Amino acid sequence: MAKSKKRRGFKVPPTLGPCTHLVKIGEGAMGAVYRADHAGMGLEVAVKVLNPKLGKQDPVAVKRFVREVRSLAAINDPLVIRVFDAGQDGPYTYAIMELIRGKSLEKLLHAAPEGRMSPGAAAHYCSKIARGLIPVHRLGIVHRDIKPENVMVEQSGGTKIADFGLAQSDDGQNLTMADQIVGTPEYMAPELVAQKDVTGQADLYSLGITAYELLTGKTPFNSGTLLQIVQCHLRKEPIPLRAKNPNVPPELEAVVNKLLAKDPSKRYKTAEEAADALAVYADRDPPYRPEPDALPTANSSGPLPPFEDLYLVKLLARHQVYPLDTLLDGILAWRRQASQAGPFAHFLVQRAGLPAATAEQATTAARNEALGLRNQLAFNAMKSRLRPDQAQAILSELRPGVRLSDYCVQRAWLNPNDARELERHVDQLLQQGVVRSTQQACQRLGAPPAPLQDLESRYPEAQFDQLLRLTIRAIVEQL
Predict the structure, then answer these.
(1) Which of 37, 145, 203, 406 is catalytic?
(2) Is 325 among the residues known to form the active site?
(3) How confident is the model at residue 32 (pLDDT cuts 50, 70, 90)?
(4) Which of 97, 152, 348, 422 has the greatest number of C-beta atoms within 10 Å?
(5) Enclosing H/E stretch for 195
């Protein structure tokens, strides 16, 4: 049987360095990112693994990547994703980072009305990015790839700069591919294009491009060849911001224009100055909060589909929209082409003729039921610490679709760190249910019990699909 497109590319073992139970949650041109358990720290972490081909092409640059990424561990700031360590394990080079539960700023932008953000929202996020750059620049590090895709927004509303894979230390050496222009062309500062001396002002230019995109929905230079785009950064002025979005205050346009100055000396001198200038126009509270993702992470490459889709299977089967066996077949077919199929409900609309209105209603109900289960587990875990009036307020005030930990943070009953710890505890409880269901499926097939991600690499596709089908059935029947 031919392998599906989803399973191509390099594979990593289930254990890498101090990390175990790796589950892929994202992939890019240079490597992939996995969710994993860190044995020494007792935490869930994100592990960025470089494609082993890079090590063969430039082993010196890969060793420098490890050394320099380790230097990033000195940054401990709430606006920057924490980097814990980096290392090599056989052919695999990896960086271990804080795991963020949320969405990229790019995804929030795409979900915003009219595909752009309000001036207050854009200024809010850009001021946070600028403040996050302050400790980075103080260490003599230039990020070199500031863009919405590399900024994460937590479910609590917090903002964190991510992906230092192209960062540059103050000795001028790239952390990755040496002697090449690296970065994303649409966000690249003129001095980076010209390969001149690069300082923190290059990040401020990229921040200006990011602000322009958040306010208009498009980067200023976004068409043509790679060479044409980078030449625009060197020679062409962007279309005036207010010509594309008249709602932008003239004063905010002036701030963005200063960030976009071709000459680095004409930009803000420091990230702190830029942050202060942007903060004047920023909304005080986080403008957009990502909808909570279920466990496992939505659209991940892990064996199980998103948890809310398991609830969708349950609801459609319970209301006799489709037989459970038909839905299980659909889940497996969707999983094999998830990168092209979109959300599972959309897949059912396209492939099985489910009415779009029914799919939307069922999806909303499934998301609320999945979150309701998380909230119930969280409430049970924390109720011994709640006063009677707090417990009563939760039971009477918590609305469907609102995460309990976020509600408690807003009421100042939990601090953000305790909220994250509570969510990790809920994840562990849900994972225990997955483990029990997997064990039941293994027993029925006469297979030794093991984590699903281990079994996926151990068995042929057809046999693993049978095991996954039995596991999903067991989970759905217990919901």
Answers:
(1) 145
(2) no
(3) confident
(4) 348
(5) none
